[in-house]
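Standup notes, structure subgroup. Blocker cleared on the iron/sulfur cluster input:
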Amino acid sequence: MLKIMINKKKCISCGVCVEACPADVLEIEDDGKPRVKALNECIVCRNCQHLCLKKAIRVDLQEYKETRYDKDVILV
Ligand code: SF4
Ligand code: SF4
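Run returned:
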């Protein structure tokens, strides 16, 4: 299961994660914070997580024995 967690309290709206995503998974919301718009496009490169200076975004992938993944988004 793939989860992308964005902590909006920690986020400083710098936009780095959105710019760093090679798969156009993230976009900036009206409040200036990122949101996940296309989770299925995520290639789990973790650029967003590694480049966020505030540690406000985390990509969590737990692989199951089944060949397909369930994907969902958690906003905290
Ligand atoms: S890189 Fe981190 S602080 Fe910057 S917009 Fe993304 S989540 Fe927010
Ligand atoms: S892990 Fe990579 S592909 Fe997935 S949202 Fe982050 S930067 Fe984009």
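Discussed briefly. Strands lie at 2-6, 26-28, 34-36, 57-61, 71-75.
Next: hand off to the docking folks.
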